[in-house]
Design goal:
Layout: H1 4-29, H2 41-65, E1 70-74, E2 82-86, H3 89-97, E3 103-105, E4 119-122, H4 123-139, H5 148-170, H6 176-183, H7 186-211, H8 222-229, H9 237-268, H10 273-287, H11 291-296, H12 298-310, E5 316-322, E6 326-327, E7 333-334, E8 339-343, H13 344-348, H14 379-384, H15 406-423, E9 424-427, E10 439-441, E11 444-446, E12 452-457
Parallel strand pairs: 2-8
Antiparallel strand pairs: 1-2, 3-5, 4-12, 5-8, 6-7, 9-12, 10-11
Helix pairs in contact: 4-5, 4-9, 5-6, 5-7, 5-9, 7-9, 9-12, 9-15
Length: about 450
């Protein structure tokens, strides 16, 4: 009788044979598209692992090698095991205009002291609870947005979910449901959140039933917005909890990373601090801490946008899966089932798109009309805003699937950065003039997860 090792070897051989066949069949569909990495079965597997740690370098290589064209890279992030990357304004416009029939989205306790001496803080870890609490002030309101256990559950969710997603993607198709069951934290997180959110949602539903959905004085938070817009069959605790969890997943970590990068750049480029403080003081003195004030902070908006250009949160933006064969304007066809995206990080550093592209210019996006008191309505200034969509600036994606939460996120980051600027001095440890290097993982980028900034309470703010 064969040993267990023999059965295991036979199963492994069968699985490898199937993977090889599936790899060859997929490769035939995209052989017309040039490759960065290897097209060999085993070589592509190693290239996909390389993409996890050095994807930004591979995309940059393809961007330079195939300007205004497309190329493919082996990856574990898509079901076809390839990601097709487009670059150049014309191809970005093709993806922006593509209908949903052709392509669809392919997404998977703080010490609040005021030190007067320089104190070092790990930036990303320090900001994560602050951002989570601030975000949920809008999502669920008081007092839940200050509940430490509730907030901690949300903070831990995203990192665990991403590890689960990679575990599922790396598994054979027949094993994916089992792997998802074993690694996913979605059911457990939803169950815990219902302990906090369930009574609130049920109370809102009861008030709607008794007093009417159009009554005045309702809480102005995401729970209300979701219940107001949902069809009757989705006005349930389970549905609202799921949507709040998804919204928190999308908002918390990207906002924390973006704000961390903004603070790192402020510490590394102190020459911008004085003009930014002057702008914030002048605007908030006249308009208070309002939405109108946020719109008028042109210099801060430009600074944040330039940070997004230089750092960003992804290597490949606007990833879409082709539902049917999709032909770009240059004649290259994306086969059905394959993922296509835009080379974001590389295009943001393209000297053909930006003057002196490799140099940080915090006021690059401030128009000459910004000194005009009515500049917030200036067409040119509106085009330059961080939230404005542009085929050259694709931080938030393009087209109808561009990030819908960018208006909320930009104002949130702007308000928090403005508060820090008015209340704290900051510098990098050892007065280091070099920015802490970001961390790349596949198509994603985050701010340096371990880097510190020294903070000190401003004398004028005490």
């Amino acid at each position: 009788m064969p040993s267990p090792a023999a059965y295991f070897g036979l199963a492994a051989a069968g699985w490898i044979s199937y993977q090889w066949y599936w790899f060859r069949e997929n490769l035939k569909k995209v052989e017309h598209i040039p490759t960065v990495g290897s097209e060999n079965f085993f070589g592509a597997w190693f290239s996909a692992w390389r993409y996890i740690l050095s994807g930004h370098k591979m995309v940059e290589e393809g961007y330079k090698k195939y300007p205004n064209g497309v190329f493919k890279v082996p990856t574990f992030e898509s079901s076809s095991r390839w990601i097709i990357v487009a670059n150049g304004a014309k191809l970005v416009e093709d993806i922006r205009k593509a209908s949903d029939d052709l392509v669809a989205s392919d997404l998977p306790t703080i010490d609040y002291t005021h030190p007067t001496e320089w104190t070092s803080y790990p930036v990303l870890d320090t900001l994560l609870p602050v951002v989570t609490r601030t975000t949920n002030r809008f999502f669920v309101g008081l007092p839940l947005c200050r509940n430490r256990d509730y907030l901690s559950t949300l903070e831990k969710f995203a990192a665990r979910l991403m590890l689960s997603a990679y575990s599922v993607t790396l598994s054979p198709s027949f094993m994916r449901p089992i792997m998802a069951y074993l690694t996913s934290n979605v059911p457990a997180t939803e169950k815990k959140l219902k302990q906090y959110l369930g009574p609130i949602i049920e109370e809102r539903l009861q008030q709607d039933a008794e007093l009417g959905i159009d009554r005045s004085g309702k809480p102005n938070d995401m729970i209300t917005w979701l219940l107001d817009l949902a069809p009757e069959e989705l006005r349930t605790v389970d549905d609202v909890v799921t949507r709040l969890l998804i919204s928190n997943f999308a908002a918390i970590h990207t906002t924390s990373n973006s704000l961390s990068d903004v603070l790192f750049h402020l510490a590394a480029y102190p020459e911008y601090v004085k003009p930014l403080r002057e702008e914030i003081e002048n605007v908030t003195r006249e308009h208070g801490w309002t939405k109108e004030a946020m719109v008028r902070l042109h210099k801060l908006d430009s600074f944040m946008k330039e940070v997004g250009r230089m750092a960003g949160v992804n290597v490949v933006a606007s990833q879409r899966k082709a539902r049917q064969a999709f032909t770009l304007s240059n004649g290259v066809t994306i086969p059905a089932g394959f993922t296509v995206g835009i080379a974001s990080n590389a295009s943001h550093h393209d000297p053909h798109a930006y003057d002196d592209a490799s140099t940080f210019n915090g006021f690059r996006f401030v128009s000459e009309a910004s000194s005009d008191p009515d500049a917030e309505s200036s067409t040119e200034q509106v085009k330059r805003q961080m939230v404005s969509l542009d085929t050259k600036y694709v931080l938030f994606g393009v087209g109808r699937h561009a990030c819908p939460g960018r208006f909320f996120a930009v104002n949130e980051i702007k308000a928090m950065a403005a508060y820090v600027l008015l209340n704290y001095d900051m510098k990098l440890p050892g007065d280091d003039p070099h920015l802490p290097a970001g961390f790349f993982f596949g198509s994603s980028r985050s701010a340096n997860p371990t880097a510190h900034i020294l903070f000190r309470k401003r004398a004028s703010a005490t």
